[in-house]
Amino acid sequence: MHPKIEAFFDASTFTYSYVVSDPASNNAAIIDPVLDYEPSSGHTSTGSADQIIDYVEREKLLVEWILETHVHADHLSAASYLKKRVGGRVGIGEHLVAVQNLFARTFNAEAGFKRDGSQFDRLFSDGEIFAVGKLPVSVIHTPGHTPACISYLFKGAAFVGDTLFMPDYGTARADFPGGDARTLYHSIQRIFALVPDTKLYMCHDYGTETRREFRFETTVADEQTNNIFVHEGIDEEQFVKNRECRDSKLSTPQLLLPAVQFNMRGAAMPPAENNGMHYFKIPVRAR
Predict the structure, then answer these.
(1) pLDDT at residue 285 above 90?
(2) Structural domain includes residue 274
(3) Which of 87, 97, 139, 248 has the fewest CB within 10 Å, making it most exposed?
């Protein structure tokens, strides 16, 4: 049976979140939810996540899982908020541990910060199969954007995180710490090995100069034929050259520093300091 899929778009971060449900049981998974964050004030809010809650309650869904495709660098996750409100277990790829170790050093994380992924309920391994209701879900390790990226494959539908974008936009960048363009190329080939009419659901869309409307769904066949960075005929060396050239011209995502510190903790703030306030760190490379 194919899943029922509802998409939610957060315009401030250009992020798509999804509720994927089993029509036979009304059990559901939430994928890549967004916690609203205002960087100029440091305030968080829950408007985006509350839209998901409204849908879950209206459809009378039972949330089994809250799934992350990776440790996001462009938005804060609403996983912990949603778990408190609608339940569910929070899952992410097992290579999260590599990301935690990397960024624990970058931000000189507190001594009590655990680097074993225990902030999450489940760490998925490549090839693992679990279920949403009666719907089987396969885990595909798709690193390159980050070491911990995974895709979730339902019947006829794959949620690929930042690995691929819409064909006219291309692919994820691969210049974040732990990222690698060559690794990304091989991950994309794993997605391209899926059945051609498999629907692919994006985590982001930014539009293009000629396409103003935002989109979130394409297919394996469409990506293979039309993706501007990795269509058929572009080999590994050409992809790596093009991707690295493009990445060298990209700016740092606005929310990277707070997002990574929050998301690597399982959607939790760093511990409060002695004044009761939470703080995100900004590494300064003074000269």
Answers:
(1) no
(2) no
(3) 248
CATH number at 61 reads 3.60.15.10
Structural domain including 185 reads 4-263
SS (H, E, C) 6-39: EEEEECCCCEEEEEEECCCCCEEEEECCEEEEEC
Secondary element (H or E) of residue 99: helix 96-106
AA letter at 186 = H
With cut-offs at 50, 70 and 90, classify the pLDDT of residue 1. confident
Q: At which residue do the structure tokens 């390159």 appear?
A: 144
What is the number of domains present in the chain? 1
- Residue 271 inside a domain? The answer is no
- Residue 141: pLDDT over 80: yes
Beta strand 157-159 with 199-201: parallel, antiparallel or unpaired? Answer: parallel
Contacts of 178 (CB under 8 A, 6+ apart): 98, 99, 102, 146, 147
Do the bridges between strand 62-67 and strand 89-93 make them parallel or antiparallel, or are there none, so unpaired?
A: parallel
pTM: 0.97
Of 264, 18, 51, residue with least CA distance to 151: 18
Q: What is the pLDDT of residues 4-36, one digit of tens each?
A: 999 999 999 999 999 999 999 999 999 999 999
- Residue 117 in domain: yes
Helix (H, G, I), strand (E, B) or coil at 169: coil
- On whether residue 282 sits in a domain, the answer given is no
Single out the residue of 62, 49, 61, 65 nearest to residue 122, CA to CA.
65
Which helix (H) or strand (E) segment holds residue 60: the answer is none
Taking a C-beta distance cutoff of 8 angstroms, is the pair 113, 1 a contact?
A: no
Beta strand 199-201 pairing with 217-219: antiparallel
Q: Is residue 144 packed enough to be buried (19+ CB in 10 Å), middle (13-18) or exposed (0-12)?
A: buried
The DSSP H or E segment spanning 93 is strand 89-93
